[in-house]
Design brief:
By secondary structure, the protein is α/β, with parallel strands linked by helices. It is 40% helix and 18% strand. The chain has eleven helices and nine strands. It has helices spanning 24-35, 55-60, 80-89, 108-119, 172-178, 191-201, 232-240, 246-268, 270-288, 294-302, 307-316, and strands spanning 14-20, 42-48, 67-71, 94-97, 103-104, 123-133, 144-149, 168-171, 206-216. Strands 1, 2, 3, 4, 5, 6, 7, 8 and 9 form a nine-stranded mixed beta sheet that branches. α2 links the parallel β2 (42-48) and β3 (67-71).
Length: 319
């Protein structure tokens, strides 16, 4: 593991932290999406979770002093350890996470920084286009289909939604105040969601920016992806994002998906809605006690802390 570099004389505005483990074939696209940002005052810190592949060579191939790699000597097994280490090494006024599977659009950082500075919020997040594998070539030969995720209720943040960490940009002061992500084996919900819930309960101002500026490509939807040393899907997506009409395509496809889900919920799963209403008093009590309301559900359903992360690792072959 390399030593901690001295603090630069002119700290960057944004520190982008990428936790990774043996996925250089997707990592290079994630880094490239930062590199292609219209906002250029950033540093990118790639934290390896004891990587044993060519991740170091992948990072070095960019030849940019703003991008550096630190490989942890011992594996944590989830993003909490690498992301916490990245925050400790960072120098930016603002902090952003980027999962090694995901991609920023070129205007993502610029829009988020502008929103933070104009609104005074502690954290902003955006809606993401989640790329789900397509069973066949589908429309225009696309290998994936899109749905929007991370869109909140009208009132803003809700602990019942999932907000990918790749969609956040926040003030360093918030990280200092809230502290590190919890380890996966200490919580019943994903560490990212436990940290965000804690930030919300602390009174932090969490602000939704209604744009689509992150593409998430979850490994959990792609069985065995860690065992493969190529990712044609990322190759296609990285090229497709250069199409100026990519947001138009995403919105069109996600609108149809949302309408289909609405019909399903309304006519085929009404008991799910009724159950949520009946359980609301219990959820409200947990929130008042500063316990993530999904913890009880997950504890009953899965029985052990960190089960969701372990299941993700098994499914994607991230041994």
């Amino acid at each position: 593991m390399s030593g901690v570099p001295p603090s630069p004389l002119e700290p960057p505005t944004v520190s982008v932290i990428i936790a990774t483990y043996n996925r250089s074939q997707t990592l290079r696209h994630a880094i490239q999406s930062v590199y292609d940002s219209s906002f250029t005052d950033w540093e990118t810190i790639v934290i390896g979770d004891a990587c044993t592949d060519d991740t170091s060579a992948c990072v070095e191939s960019f030849g940019d002093s703003r991008i550096r790699f630190v490989n942890l000597p011992n594996r944590c097994g989830d993003q909490s350890g690498p992301n916490n280490h990245g925050v400790a090494l960072s120098h930016g006024r603002y902090i952003a996470f980027l999962n090694h599977d995901d991609l920023y659009t070129p205007d993502h950082l610029a829009k988020c920084v502008a929103e933070l500075e104009s609104s005074g919020a502690d954290l902003v997040w955006v809606s993401c286009a989640m790329a789900r594998p397509r069973a066949n070539s589908g429309l225009e030969g696309r290998p994936c289909q899109f749905v929007l995720v991370g869109v909140p209720q009208v009132s803003g943040y809700s602990p019942f939604s999932f907000y990918f960490a790749s969609s956040w940009v926040f003030r360093r002061s918030l990280a200092d105040r809230i502290g590190p992500w919890p380890a996966a084996n200490r919580v019943y919900v994903p560490p990212s969601q436990a940290w965000l819930f804690r930030a919300w309960r602390s009174g932090a101002t969490l602000r939704f920016l209604p744009v689509i500026s992150v593409i998430v490509i979850p490994a959990g939807l792609r069985p065995g992806c860690y065992a493969r040393r190529e990712s044609p899907e990322h190759e296609w997506l990285a090229s497709w994002l250069k199409d100026p009409k990519h947001r138009e395509h995403i919105l069109e496809e996600s609108a149809v998906s949302e309408a289909m889900q609405h019909v399903t919920d309304l006519y085929h799963a009404p008991l799910r809605v009724i159950r949520r209403v009946l359980l609301w008093p219990g959820y409200a009590l947990l929130i008042a006690l500063r316990i993530h309301p999904r913890s009880l559900h997950n504890a009953i359903l899965y029985g052990r802390r960190g089960y969701l992360i372990r299941r993700h690792r098994r499914r994607s072959d991230a041994h």
